[in-house]
Amino acid sequence: MSVVGHLLGGxxxxxxxxxxxxxxxxxxxxxxxxxxxxxxxxxxxGVITNIVAAVIGVMLGYAAGLTVLVVEVVRFLVDAAxxxxxxxxxxxxxxxxxxxxxxxEIEKHI
Length: 110
Prior knowledge:
Elements: H1 3-41, H2 47-109
Helix pairs in contact: 1-2
């Protein structure tokens, strides 16, 4: 896979996961506030409660989204380091073959 393809695939996965966890935790936070307001008041929540529920839902979703984003960045950096390690190991293995060929050519001329 090319580097650009790898980057775009990781970016697509990261954006999808951030949005998914934002929505999940946003809905959970808003639902908790609405349920708490209903239990405390005994009737449907008012407009202020709905606004507070939306704000808390957005804050929880934002926190969850940022956490997932950090995890995805760390995962990408670890994958990039592993790819670089494999590339260097492949180059070093090839370097041994080149050095062996140079030694054989020198031995032929001696």
